[in-house]
Amino acid sequence: MNIAIPLAALTALATFAGGFLAFRSRDRLHLTLGLAAGLLLGLVSFDLLPEIFSLNTHTIGRVPVVSVAFVFGFLALHFAEQLFGSHEPAESDYGHEHQHHATIAGTVGALAMGGHVFLDGVGLGLAFQISNGLGLAVFIAVMAHAFSDGLNTVSFLVKSGHWSRRAISLLSLDAFMRISGAALGTYIVISDSYLAIYLAVFSGLLIYLATSHILPEAHSRHPSRLTMVATIIGVMVMWAVVAFIGQA
Fold first, then answer.
1. What tens digit of pLDDT does each residue of 11-58 get?
2. SS (H, E, C) 81-126
3. What's the whole-model pTM score?
4. How far apart are alpha carbons 239 and 145 in whole angstroms?
5. Bridge partners for 162 per DSSP
6. Host domain of residue 57
7. Which of 40, 106, 124, 140 is least enclosed, having the fewest CB within 10 Å?
8. Residue 59 pairs with which residues in a beta bridge?
9. Which distant-in-sequence residues (6+ apart) come within 8 Å of 13 by Cβ?
């Protein structure tokens, strides 16, 4: 359905909003990030995984194929970051002697985001192939992820002291990759079994991002109970969205 492409464009705006707020103010962003992590966890637990297990019931070594795909998605992103540049919390402190390293690692890390946001877009397009309800749920979670991506991209570069041109270019790349991914996901046709495998990999990516990026980011300098409450609210909001969609 073509609706995935304009929705992907909206997620691109969320990326720019996250980048703008990262530069202007970080005082309350930990609450937004806590909420974003909850939305991602809720999406995977309440909507994606039940759908995935219903679409593909095949097993390998007595384990569901989609479970293997889920673990593969999680580990693939983890290994990619270890090989091509690790992610540090945006609010972590850098000494003067690490400025050159911050510049390189920040740019590499921000460029690496382009790969997984492309998969965000593909996941959004494919979700709408299954149903409008699943597509809407994925859209909400991708919006949350897009905001945190924009925050991280600019924060990488603010720490290095080279944010202006690079931040604009990298945020634009992020937006382009997300929209092009949605276009691809909208028009490719694959069987339900293979679609389930892709969505399982996508779910693994989302869980990794929520637990290894967004939550540590939220608690990096503001380890407060309010942040934990925001995460719980995010989970409950996604639960409500899934329940509403199921009744529609």
1. 878 877 777 776 665 566 677 778 878 888 888 898 889 989 998 999
2. HHHHCCCCCCCCCCCHHHHHHHHHHHHHHHHHHHHHHHHHHHHHHH
3. 0.69
4. 17
5. none
6. 4-247
7. 140
8. 64
9. none
